[in-house]
Amino acid sequence: MKIEGFDKFISLGQDSADAFTKSSAVAVKGFEEFAKVSQALTARNVEKADAAVKALFSVKSPAEFADLQGKLAREAVESMIADGRKLAEIGTSVMTAALEPLNARFAAFQSLVKTAA
Questions:
Q1: Domain range spanning residue 62?
Q2: What's the pLDDT tens digit per position in 16-25?
Q3: Closest Cα to residue 100, out of 32, 36, 25, 33?
Q4: What is the pTM of this model?
Q5: Is position 115 within any domain?
Q6: How many domains are there within the chain?
Q7: I want to staple 101 with a disulfide (CB 3.0 to 4.6 A). Which of 19, 44, 80, 92 is the partner?
């Protein structure tokens, strides 16, 4: 005995499970990339902070200290903005790529519902 539409229902479930698996794999790879970049940025910032402290301890006058401190603060803010932008771009890219297979399945489901109605 064959139930009409059952094959489509089973196929839809299998395709949805495959899409979820693909989406999860993309998300895992993306989060790994995000972690690598974050780790590299942190290591770079620790090196910059070490160099900044050494530079601050080598100044000879309060004026020189103030000038250097202002310069280092500007560089730190600029670096923070650039790093944040880079991490945001990676995050956006990962989420877009991870949701792509799920969006395709949702569209397929909507199409199936429309044709069934």
A1: 6-108
A2: 889 999 999 9
A3: 25
A4: 0.74
A5: no
A6: 1
A7: 19
